[in-house]
Amino acid sequence: MRLEQHIEAMSAFAAGRASATALIPMMAGAAHPGRRAQVYRNSGSLACVEALRSNYLRLATVMGDDFFGALARAYADAEPPTSRSLVGYGASLAQFVAGAEAEHGIPWLADIAQLDRGWLDAHLAPDAAPLIPGALAEVDSSTLMTCILGVHPSAQLVDTEWTTASLWIDLKAGKLPSRQMALPHRSEHVLFWRPGGEVGMRSLSPGEHAFLSSAMSQLPLGAACEAAMAAEPSIDLSHLIAGAVSSGFFITIAQQGGANHDTHSEAKGRL
User: Fold this and answer.
1) Packed helices 65-78 and 35-55: angle between N→C axes, nearest 10 degrees
2) What single-letter DSSP state applies at residue 131?
3) Which of 14-18, 30-34, 180-184, 266-270 has the lowest mean pLDDT?
4) Which position among 50, 80, 192, 196 has the lowest Cβ density within 10 Å, counted as fewest Cβ atoms?
5) What is the model's pLDDT at position 19?
6) Angle 230-252-193 (CA atoms, 0-180°, nearest 5)?
7) How far apart are CA 203 and CA 170, in angstroms?
């Protein structure tokens, strides 16, 4: 039995889509697994729930143990793991939470899951050396606006429907909301990124969001600046660009259609 078939059979059994007979090809001598199968199913479900609890800490905090446990078990049944590792498991949990709003009745709950996911994806992303301050000054000013700035691989933009960023920060600090708390139904844009050892989080203005999302779409710097001004005409572009560089958001500079301009190594060699 190939590994892919092995994983598919075990996932189907763990999710309740197949009976214990699906495990027979994996058993020594093709024996029926018997009661061991239910032990495996229970332990597999528990492992999925605990992985989701670890990956979505703030969501689990605001929901409480019983509420979150029930939701996590339902998710694991609907979306069982497709690999042997549970690292990063639950990529579609926010959509699952949103789809279950009729059951839980909390319209902003999916936004908390999205923010948890943004933090987790930034945490799990590969490392990369950011541009050093002053790197853009080394590029010819006549071509700078046509350059494409490579974005740090940890960068995650999360767009929420409710103003949940402050609540998420409170939950991260262990502060539980009051039962009477009402959140404004207003969209927010949040950036997660990890240029160093810690994941950073920042709420973005409309211009900052337009600029960073354009850069993440690999648009030239000039186009990203135009998008920022269209979204927020009063924005200070010089401050915006300098802030993005100093925060470690960018890692490379490339001429449009050309090779990377490795200002990081060049500048480093002159220090």
Assistant:
1) 120
2) P
3) 266-270
4) 196
5) 53
6) 70
7) 14
Alpha carbons 261 and 225: distance in angstroms, whole number: 20
Q: What is the pTM of this model?
A: 0.81
71-80 pLDDT, tens digit per residue, is 999 999 899 8
Q: Rounded to the nearest 5 degrees, what angle is found at the Cα of 116, between the Cα atoms of 112 and 121?
A: 145
Q: What is the CA radius of gyration of the chain?
A: 23
Dist. CA 4–CA 261, nearest whole Å: 42
What span, in angstroms and rounded, lies between the C-alpha atoms of 11 and 76? 10
Which of 143, 23, 45, 161 is CA-nearest to residue 98? Answer: 161
Instruction: Please report where in the chains the tokens 């960018």 appear, as a residue.
Output: 250
Is the per-residue pLDDT at 37 higher than 80?
no
* Mean pLDDT of the 178-204 span: 91
